[in-house]
Amino acid sequence: MALGVKAIPFTFVVHVLGIAGLILVLVWTIDFRGGLAWESTNKSLIFNIHPVLMLIGLIIIGGEAIISYKSLPLSKEKKKLVHLVLHAIALILGIIGVYAAFKYHNESSIANLYSLHSWLGIGIIVLYAIQWIYGFLVFFYPGGSGELRSACIPWHVVFGLVVYVLAVGNASLGFLEKLTFLENSGVAKYGSEAFLVNFTAVITILFGAFVVLSVLSQAPAEDDHSYSAI
Amino acid sequence: MALGVKAIPFTFVVHVLGIAGLILVLVWTIDFRGGLAWESTNKSLIFNIHPVLMLIGLIIIGGEAIISYKSLPLSKEKKKLVHLVLHAIALILGIIGVYAAFKYHNESSIANLYSLHSWLGIGIIVLYAIQWIYGFLVFFYPGGSGELRSACIPWHVVFGLVVYVLAVGNASLGFLEKLTFLENSGVAKYGSEAFLVNFTAVITILFGAFVVLSVLSQAPAEDDHSYSAI
């Protein structure tokens, strides 16, 4: 265990930052950018689905899935179920969010997959899915031998955290990219929208940092420490 | 210790990726962007100093400073000296690199400190300096008590890695931001320069990932494991 402090306070901070991030991204997309729509002649409303679903999905629910092992007063089996179900929801929302970005591009005749954000995004969603499938098979159903699980758990934790940190970093790239496009179209560089988007990105990064700190801290005493591979 | 594998192979990969990243950023700034200059009527040449120094400094030398504890066959005291000297060089190059960005902005009448990249960059360089000063005082001179050092080392490792990962993420933001500006000025989205910059960012991220994996893996057997706090 890396840090000699309890994880629970960090997980409270994660929840608060998650709520703050959710509010900020909704204020941005609804108040400043006109709202969300799956079908619309105003194609920007289709785009708006992308940041909302990516933030709620991969970042917030994905982060809650990670810390659920440290923060829930449940049995190991129940926590495992919560962990994999939350990650499945995160992944599904992430896939719909990625689809929304392509839909917006295609209906607006904007090129696909030329930016670093898009390249990394495709890579991350694929790695997230691989991590989920591998975790499901080894730790849930059918489940590997005790020896295999013991060998896999540190890699599961480290690989999962690497993919999660990449997702948080790529969310920041997305906020910067979109805001740069908007500023090129006339949005003020020091205006309220620019500050809102930058602060949303900062909150997202802090959220990710506190998820990582939760993992590196100590599980509650009653815990079986099965997750404390790091 | 998180991962039951030796760190040394990971550190070899770090060196190779570092050399690759260095070559790519030099090809970009010199071949595609006209070279580097501290004083020039072509202000873009002043900007070019920024990505080169940030990548060589905070990312490559900073990463080598981190893994030096795992990769060098030296005594603990000598490794500590290498670690702090490399981090000092990284920090100084980083400060000059940040100054170059301001110099370019000021001489080109471009606004300062409006973007997420600039906000995070200032925060990261300050945190990097705090981490260096605190590490110097506690672990080198005058040095804290054994008890204080033991209490501080896990936080030193975790805080250092968080700052380093933020630096790698912010380098990616910088590459994406600059390329987006260039594409708005006519650089082709699927052209060779765009691919070069995106691949440099991908190499930078892989470099950072392998630095983290080195830290999470096992020091050579003859090592005193003093750094193995995680």
Topology:
The structure is a homodimer of 230-residue chains.
Chain A: H1 8-32, H2 44-71, H3 76-107, H4 116-140, H5 146-184, H6 192-216
State the gist of this model:
Two copies of one chain form a homodimer. The first copy, chain A, has 230 residues and is mainly α.
Keywords:
homodimer; 6 helices; globular; disordered C terminus; 230 residues; mainly alpha; 0% strand; Four Helix Bundle (Hemerythrin (Met), subunit A)
Describe the protein.
2 copies of one chain form a homodimer. By secondary structure, the first copy, chain A, is mainly α. Chain A has a single domain (8-216), classed as Up-down Bundle (Four Helix Bundle (Hemerythrin (Met), subunit A)). Helix content of chain A is 76%, strand content 0%. Chain A contains 6 helices and no strands. Chain A has helices at 8-32, 44-71, 76-107, 116-140, 146-184, 192-216. In chain A, α2 runs antiparallel to α3 and α5 packs antiparallel against α6 (192-216). The longest helix of chain A has 39 residues, at 146-184. The first copy, chain A, is globular. The N and C termini of chain A lie close together (5 Å). The relative contact order of chain A is 0.16. The model of chain A is unreliable at 226-230 (pLDDT under 50). At the A-B interface, α4, α5 and α6 of A face α4, α5 and α6 of B.
